[in-house]
Structure formats: structure tokens, C-alpha cells
Amino acid sequence: MGEGEETIELRFRIYDGTDIGQGSYALSLTAATLKQKLVAEWPRDKTVTPKSVNDVKLIHAGKILEDNKTLADSKITIGDLPGGVVTMHVVVQPPVAKKKTEKNEEQMQKMNACTCNIL
After folding, report:
1. How much is the pTM?
2. CA distances (Å), origin 48, targets 27, 99, 100
């Protein structure tokens, strides 16, 4: 970070309540840069781990940060707390399900079949 550059104190909370990556960050950093840092620092003992930066979403004040926007553009503020730490939530998207095979489609059709018996 350059001298005189505005910074903000951030921490990132993952799915189990653990905080990672706490520190001062320049307001000129993009969300994509933060994601790269978080993926690199992700605790390896967790059951859910991102495989790439694209698996991670950063959420602040109920909004998902866009990769190409800086923290300043995203209006990350600490409110009225001087020296406060801003907590962002980190969400890992579940992996995309594998494509159905023909066999699976046939099984699904059998399971979803509807029959009527008139007595």
C-alpha cells in the first residue's frame, strides 16, 4: 500500500463463523484481489474449500461485491465507529452438479411415472 493511501480494517467471516484475513486494506483494492488473497489464505482443515476465486462471493451490507469494483466504489464504510473493523461474509458456491447421464434420465423417468388403477 502506498503512503497516505486510505485504508480500512477488514475481517472476513466464513461459513462456520471463523474469521480469516483480518488486516488493513487499501480502498483502491478490487474485490477480485481480495478474493485471491482469501483463497490463498483459506484454512485447509475446513470441509468446504474454494477451488478457485470464482467459487467465492464477498458480501457486505447484504450486497455481493462485484469483482471489478474497488472497495471505495463498493462504498465499504465503518459507520460511526472510529477505528472499527468491518466484517464481510465469504460464501463458497457449491460445485455445479455433474450432467445427467442417459441412464440417470431413464431412472428419473421411471421414478416420476404416474399410474392409475381403476377398480
Report:
1. 0.69
2. 29, 22, 24
- Please tell me the distance from the alpha carbon of residue 56 to that of residue 10, in angstroms, as a whole number: 17
Q: Can you tell me the distance from the alpha carbon of 9 to that of 78, in angstroms, rounded to the nearest whole number?
A: 9
Please report the DSSP string for 40-60 in residue order: HH--TT-SS--SSGGGEEEEE
Residue 77 contacts residue 43 (beta carbons within 8 Å): no
For 82-96, the pLDDT digits (tens) are 567 888 899 988 656
Contact between 53 and 35 under an 8 Å Cβ cutoff? The reply is yes
Rounded distance between C-alpha atoms, residue 25 and residue 39, angstroms: 16
Averaged pLDDT for residues 65-92? 80
Cβ–Cβ under 8 Å, residues 46 and 62:
no
Look up residue 95 and give its three cell numbers.
460445485
Cα end-to-end span (Å), the chain:
80
Q: Identify whether the C-beta of residue 11 lies closer than 8 Å to the C-beta of residue 19.
A: yes
pLDDT digit string (tens) for 35-50? 999 999 888 888 888 8
